[in-house]
Specification:
Length: 764
């Protein structure tokens, strides 16, 4: 008995020793982590799966299956960059892992890296030519390249190789729709449903087809069938909401969204649907209120928190947005979405330099993040670097061709710079991306209108009205077309229709007022402004328009001044009202008040370069050259290539004995920005004269006189004075006398008349 007990004890210790040895075996430990990750993956707990697969890799970095499954978890979490890294590592360890090649090809296609994607699809076609999924990937690649006809052929091969796969028919139908084969697409969708009548993606695709054909009853039937087929999936309800909106049934759409929120208390996509609906409908205030409630109920839902932050940013609640966003970054310091939000907040708070640094950190760690590039462009634009901003927006567009915001930004930049060809290009891009939005059509109408293509502009404006009859933008552009054609009655009617749809639209009111002004009816323009102000209070731009009408007429200077002051009181960032208020003060002989207006404008709008330049001009007129130069220098700090500030600073540096070489550099900057400015040519010429380059200086002075005449300006005595001095320095006394005498003839009280007379006496 005793011996038996001893043997049992020995066996027990031997078993414990075996267990201890196994627990220290890396292969065993990594496999256990792997199995745990698999269980989490099957249950849809993707973040937990990421942790376990990562643990497996940490123990055994060469565990290829763990790298591959980790990639699958990242794909489920829509973390493409991390999935790309793990798929790449999988292929390094297992070059013949064709599912990894396939996943990587599809990931690269979705990311727009079509060249690298093709390398993987070529390898797959060579090694797995009978795999229907391979032909499906090739079809997607061809579609991304714009070759829809070839894509349909590949999708058909996918169907032929896997005739029992309903997914193959679904993808074929989608590609047929994109290739303009709508009827064939419907047939493919129905074949997919025959194989799997409860396939939600197919039901929704067929519903979208019916919706595109305005067969709304059939579309609604398919969407509701999808809801019945998978009641735990919120996507069919989202499709139904979109359909109801398209049918013009916003109340029903809102009702479905509210019910979805009640039914999906534990599903983020479901309980967020109402807030997302409000945002999609342009009801930002309601969306923000809804997300405030969601944030309270679901404070740990990162998507809720980030959407709420984004809405707060849009609403201008920057302090609150920053407070919540910084909490995210405290727990997740590398969260790219939160860093991008920080950059947005910094930019909107008037700190574009900080925003640039924040967003460049994101683009450095993730160069393929299109959203970061887009917002970096906004920061650079705010800093005055429009060219660099456009580069960032183009990069964002290349990285995600389906992102509409970069196209909008590029269209706006083209509008500002007067590049009508680029404006039409990007407007057309917006139309392709959002055919049911009026914005692209309206912007293209602007481009065509400014090129006097009235018929085409009118067609675009009509299309904008057709796709969004309750949106004012189409009526505004249609009114602008009629105004350009001097069809005043139609223009007036269209601008009034625009105001009926958006009573707070400055563009619509401006169009209506311009219609009256062109007909020499300024009183009607003033009445229109006052009528709209009575209807909608608190719109700064309305008072600005009223002040402009009164200022242009100059019959009621006090009324104009009061209107501008009211506009500024409502919005201290109304740059146009501030500028016009100062111009009115100058026109009425009150230069000191104008200077005070500019300085107040600078205080509230520190990046408004024009205010520094205009204030510098007023200091210059007061002979306060020191403060004038300070203003020009500050303007150049904000916008280093501002030509007016560079020119004026260069001129004053010469006048006050500054560094000629620095002045030369400034003048060259001004010349690049304003090549047709007579003043800039004169400044550069005067600098060359100081440096002894008289021949080049004379050429520039002559060009300045020629440019002045082309611009309709009378002879500038300063240019004649400088030209006379250049002739005198180059031993051409007869020509020097002609120019100097011309100065006194133009302006006997010229500021440097004493020196002109002295020079003439010297010539004698």
């Amino acid at each position: 008995m005793k011996a038996h007990r001893i043997r049992m004890i020995v066996a027990l210790f031997a078993a414990m020793g075996l267990w201890s040895a196994c627990s220290h075996d890396p292969k065993v430990r990594s496999h256990k982590y792997f199995e745990s990750g698999q269980r989490y993956l099957q249950k849809g707990k993707y973040r937990e799966a990421v942790i376990q697969f990562s643990n497996a890799i940490q123990v055994d970095p060469s565990y290829a299956d763990a790298h591959y499954q980790l990639a699958q978890a990242y794909l489920k979490l829509e973390q493409g960059r991390q999935a790309f890294e793990q798929l790449t590592r999988t292929i390094e360890l297992q070059p013949s892992n064709y599912p990894a090649h396939l996943d990587l090809a599809n990931l690269l296609i979705s990311g727009g890296d079509l060249k690298m994607a093709q390398e993987h699809t070529d390898l797959l076609l060579q090694n797995q030519p009978e795999n229907p999924l391979v032909h499906g990937a090739v079809a997607n690649l061809l579609a991304s390249q714009g070759n829809f006809s070839a894509a349909v052929q590949e999708a058909q091969k996918c169907v032929d190789l896997g005739p029992q796969r309903w997914e193959s028919y679904l993808e074929l139908g989608r590609l047929q729709m994109r290739d303009g084969q709508a009827d064939q697409g419907e047939t493919s969708f129905k074949r997919a449903l025959a194989l799997n009548p409860k396939a939600v993606p197919t039901l929704l695709a067929l519903g979208e087809y019916y919706q595109s054909r305005n067969r709304f009853a059939e579309a609604e039937q398919e969407d509701r069938s999808a809801i019945v087929a998978d009641p735990s999936n919120p996507e069919p309800r989202s499709a139904l909401v979109r359909l109801l909106v398209a049918e013009g049934k916003p109340d029903e759409a809102e009702s479905v969204s509210k019910q979805t929120k009640k039914d999906f208390t534990d599903n983020s996509d479901g309980y967020r649907m109402l807030g997302d609906y409000y945002f999609a409908m342009g009801e930002t205030a309601k969306a923000t209120e809804e997300y405030a409630s969601l944030y309270k109920d679901h404070p740990n839902d990162l998507q809720v928190v980030q959407n709420y932050v984004q809405l707060l940013i849009l609403q201008g609640e920057l302090d609150q947005a920053s407070q919540i966003n910084e909490k995210i970054l405290k727990n997740h310091p590398d969260d790219e979405k939160a860093l991008i939000c920080r950059g947005q907040i910094e930019n909107r708070q008037g700190h574009p330099g900080d925003a640039k640094n924040t967003l460049q950190a994101v683009t450095k760690s993730d160069p393929d993040n299109p959203t970061a590039h887009y917002h970096l462009g906004l920061a650079l634009d705010a800093m005055g670097y429009l060219g660099q901003a456009q580069d960032e927006w183009r990069m964002a567009e290349r990285l995600n061709p389906n992102l509409v915001e970069p196209a909008r930004a590029l269209a706006e930049a083209a509008l500002r710079t007067g590049d009508l060809t680029a404006l039409e290009q990007y407007a057309t891009r917006i139309i392709v991306l959002e055919p049911s939005s009026p914005d692209g059509y309206a912007l293209r109408a602007v481009s065509r209108l400014n090129r006097h293509q009235y018929e085409e502009a009118g067609q675009d404006a009509s299309k904008a009205i057709e796709v969004a009859p309750q949106n004012a933008v189409g009526y505004i552009q249609a009114g602008n077309v009629k105004l350009a054609q001097r069809e005043y009655g139609d223009a007036e009617r269209l601008f009034e229709q625009a105001l009926d749809r958006n009573s707070a639209s400055p563009e619509a009111l401006s169009g209506l007022m311009n219609t009256f002004i062109e007909q020499k009816q300024p009183d009607k323009a003033v009445t229109a402004a006052r009528t709209q102000i009575a209807k909608v209070s608190g719109i700064s731009a309305f008072y600005d328009l009223l002040g402009t009408a009164l200022f242009n007429d100059m019959r009621d200077k006090d009324g104009a001044a009061a209107a501008f002051q009211q506009a500024i009181a409502l919005d201290k960032h109304d740059v146009d009202a501030l500028s016009k208020s100062a111009q009115l003060q100058i026109a009425t002989g009150n230069g000191d008040a104008a200077l005070a207006t500019y300085l107040a404008g600078i205080n509230d709008n520190p990046r408004q370069t024009d205010f520094y330049v205009d204030a510098g001009g007023l200091y210059e007129s007061k002979q306060d050259f020191g403060r004038a130069m300070q203003m020009y220098q500050k303007a150049l700090e904000v916008t280093p290539d501002n030509p007016m500030a560079a020119n004026n600073l260069a001129f004053l540096m010469l006048k006050t004995g500054g560094n000629v070489d620095v002045a030369m550099s400034l003048a060259e900057t001004a010349r690049r920005g304003l090549p047709n400015s007579p003043n800039v040519a004169d400044t550069l010429g005067w600098i060359l004269c100081q440096k002894g380059a008289y021949r080049s200086a004379i050429d520039l002075f002559q060009e300045a006189l020629r440019l002045g005449q082309q611009n309709g300006n009378r002879d500038n005595p300063t240019v004649h004075y400088h030209l006379g001095m250049a002739y005198a320095k180059s031993d051409q006394p007869r020509l020097a006398r002609q120019q100097l005498e011309r100065v006194l003839k133009i302006d006997p009280n010229y500021s440097d008349a004493a020196d002109v007379k002295k020079q003439l006496a010297g010539l004698s």
